[in-house]
């Protein structure tokens, strides 16, 4: 979730008051979506059991039109387009009154987890990052479509009475506390060392050092702050990991998948490797005070990479153990000891 827009904000920014007359999705945008959908169809369930069942409702915001794809219940003002068999689901359209193009984001329209995204730049290099970004948001669709998700998130008690979900972005974590920042940096260094030592003779010791550093970091936090940290690692960090996995596994399964001349997934292996390097670079350079909640993304993603090595079946318990990854380390025989200050 690159950012969170509430339904009311979404309506004000993107939705126009009347239906828009449009014939169909432009060919390029249709091809990009077909690539994204095809990749998800082919490997999502292999990467994560159940991911393939996630809704794929997507609002594609272009100039001058917004297209709402894969829904049977569009908001008021959307008009249906001709059936689009290539995508295998209904397409609706209305005017983009603001003319603005969003970054990738996520919201709930009605009760439908919905990706909001603009088309990729018109360069070959932009297609693969765009597909991976859509996959990241599509993973959130799977997370949030679980029947107990909303109740479990509210039970964290982090909204301060606000049930809109804005706390997921706006929670007042102590990002600017110098001591918290130093402990966070110590933790990320230890995690980097632990992932580098996987398979080595000192791998277990490095993991223990990391969990000790994580415990020291958590001891500096209030219980609600700890719950917010764990939530972000579980939700955003693992979504980034899933984004990487879709690229890596898709490169093996569908490296030459092509839906039209010039629209293909060749180079997905190189993109997956770049994404992995980017995650590790972010882990090594991220600063809590400047990156704010985005600092948690590479931490959760690298924890997931580590868990894949030390506990390959951890994904089976992911949904049953909201919203933390600590249980998976414990199942692997590792535990962090956190006590209140």
Describe the protein:
By secondary structure, this protein is α+β, with helices and mostly antiparallel strands. The protein folds into two domains: 7-145, no CATH class; 155-331, no CATH class. Helix content is 50%, strand content 9%. It has twelve helices and eight strands. The strands form two sheets. It has a six-stranded mixed sheet, sandwiched between helices. A two-stranded antiparallel sheet has the order 7-8. Strand 5 (105-109) and strand 6 (112-117) form a beta hairpin. The chain is globular. The chain starts with 6 loop residues before the first helix and ends in a 10-residue tail after the last helix.
Provide a compact summary of the structure.
This protein is α+β, with helices and mostly antiparallel strands and 341 residues long. It contains twelve helices and eight strands. Helices cover 50% and strands 9% of the residues.
Measure the end-to-end span: 32 Å
| Total strands | 8
Decide which structural class fits the backbone: alpha+beta
Content of β-strand: 5-15%
H/I helix tally = 12
- Average the pLDDT over all residues and give the rounded result: 85
């Amino acid at each position: 979730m690159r950012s969170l827009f509430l339904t009311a904000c979404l309506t004000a920014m993107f939705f126009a008051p009347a239906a828009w007359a449009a014939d169909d999705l432009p060919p390029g945008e249709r091809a990009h979506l077909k690539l994204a959908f095809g990749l998800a169809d082919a490997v999502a369930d292999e990467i994560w059991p159940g991911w393939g069942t996630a809704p794929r409702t997507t609002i594609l915001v272009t100039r001058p039109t917004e297209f709402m794809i894969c829904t049977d219940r569009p908001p008021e003002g959307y008009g249906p387009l001709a059936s689009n068999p290539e995508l295998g689901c209904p397409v609706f359209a209305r005017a983009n009154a603001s003319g603005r193009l969003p970054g990738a984001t996520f919201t709930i329209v009605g009760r439908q987890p919905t990706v909001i995204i603009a088309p990729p730049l018109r360069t070959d290099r932009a297609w693969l990052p765009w597909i991976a970004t859509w996959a990241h948001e599509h993973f959130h669709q799977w997370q949030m479509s679980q029947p107990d998700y909303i109740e479990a998130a509210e039970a964290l008690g982090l909204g301060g009475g606000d049930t809109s979900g804005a706390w997921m972005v706006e929670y007042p974590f102590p990002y600017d506390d110098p001591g918290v920042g130093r402990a966070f940096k110590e933790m990320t260094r230890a995690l980097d060392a632990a992932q580098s030592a996987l398979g080595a003779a000192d791998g277990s010791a490095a993991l223990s050092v990391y969990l000790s550093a994580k415990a020291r970091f958590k001891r500096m936090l209030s219980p609600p702050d700890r719950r917010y940290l764990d939530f972000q690692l579980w939700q955003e960090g693992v979504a980034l990991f899933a984004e990487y996995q879709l690229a890596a596994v898709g490169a093996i399964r569908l490296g030459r998948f092509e839906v039209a001349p010039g629209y293909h997934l060749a180079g997905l292996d190189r993109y997956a490797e770049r994404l992995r390097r980017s995650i590790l670079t972010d882990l090594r350079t991220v600063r809590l005070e400047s990156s704010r909640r985005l600092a948690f993304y590479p931490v959760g993603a690298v924890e997931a990479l580590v868990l894949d090595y030390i506990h390959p079946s951890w994904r089976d318990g992911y949904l049953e153990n909201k919203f933390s990854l600590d249980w998976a380390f414990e199942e692997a025989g590792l535990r962090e000891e956190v006590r209140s200050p």
